[in-house]
């Protein structure tokens, strides 16, 4: 079927109507091939006309020429219990240069389930009037799968919500960035979001959605909270919902379970990216030995064509909990440093060993050599070896972040910063992040990375050691770095003293999807910090990561109380060093006497 021009009038409409259909089953889809080509070919749309509803529902649209080709359209109809028909309308722009055509119209899976003579088994449900035998997971899910409504009879309204009259007993989270919006009909932005709800399949029905247009920003999140449920250890509790993720810049939808009221919970399921213009059903089986709550979190993508829809949420085999979830304590118990120092005669320029009260020189604190019997002089320092396992930062800290956290008016949530990560917590679409750490080579291993989904181009993130008092002549830093992604920024290693900051090592651009070894020579230095600085690239496609940071041979030289051996050289400052270290272009003595031309 194709359209011919009959007049030159502006906005002339060609209308093609279908026969009338009585009803459809819950899995019904309509597909056809269309052709819309020409400089001023104009728009076309397919409308659903349901008996008893004045407002038509737009099911499909094309706005402009889509090239000299046939394209396929697939439209989800779902359960339509009333008689209906379709109207295909083509709008001309007056100066009509183009051709519109349609062919190969097909309905699939549109019949109700057939009647059955028997329906046995714990996982089956026998429909009352139609005698169809359906899966018991379809019972009380807000969809009339039987065709007679019997699978939706006698359902607990507190365990389901179609959003036709509000949020039911669900709530918006107050700790997120914005709220889910209740709407009916299409979302305001074209080429993203649903055109209709899932419950009624028409523009009359309501659903929830996330609006991705301004003022929303990339990675803004909206969280919806379920009512509380009693423990479900057997896994008999099922959570059913329908989601819609259509648009080029759709980002993520996730479902979490939490048993503590002030936590983000445990990830149960997620989906990322464009899933086409359709409602998709998802069923999750919940196991929990404690009372729990479900969180549905949507995250905005990097653009306005990223709307996400949610409809027809329901629980089966779950019991509401009449109480409150406990709150996890945010305070830490105990401390590594006693509240009061032991009795001592130390001066202000000396360090007091915490266990014995012994006095040592302040230069001996944080020098990679424990001088106190309890090692307290090295307790508040950077660790010699750090693999970040057990989520331990090993003394590394972020000074800028600490200053921001002290200012209640500044949010650090979306700040470009270093943080701990691991492959098990990543989404597969984040291929620019390390999927495994370097230490264990598994998804469960931890590493440190600067998350470029936060911040803007050129922003920097610093993570630093505490002040290191003194290092030896052969001290060096060995670490592994991961820099992969089309818009990766740079990584620098800096030396910072009270007087200056200098660059020791730098690397920029993508280095491939593997961990790479790096080595930075420090030598003898005093009262300084080492800083890893990540600089963000032009977009979020590329995170800088580091792992297995080692300070090697960094303890300072000791003055021997014995004469140097025949295999050693006595420096001018009385240190003893191996003779093999003479004239090797390294200041092993600390006074350069081992590199003197007079040796």
UniProtKB/TrEMBL annotation:
Q: Does the keyword Cell wall biogenesis/degradation apply?
A: no
Disulfides per UniProt = 140-155, 366-381, 564-576, 571-589
Gene3D superfamilies associated with the record: 2.60.120.200, Low-density Lipoprotein Receptor
Checking SMART domains in the record gives: LDLa, MAM
InterPro entries, sorted: ConA-like_dom_sf (IPR013320), LDL_receptor-like_sf (IPR036055), LDLR_class-A_CS (IPR023415), LDrepeatLR_classA_rpt (IPR002172), MAM_dom (IPR000998), MAM_domain-containing (IPR051560)
List each copy of the MAM domain by range.
1-112, 159-320, 384-556
Q: Which keywords belong to this entry? A: Disulfide bond, Repeat
Any one GO CC term of this protein is:
membrane
> Does this UniProt record's set of keywords contain Nucleotidyltransferase?
no
Membrane spanning stretches: none
Question: What is the name of this protein?
Answer: MALR1 protein
Q: Which organism is it from?
A: Sylvietta virens (Green crombec)
Q: Which gene encodes it?
A: Malrd1_0
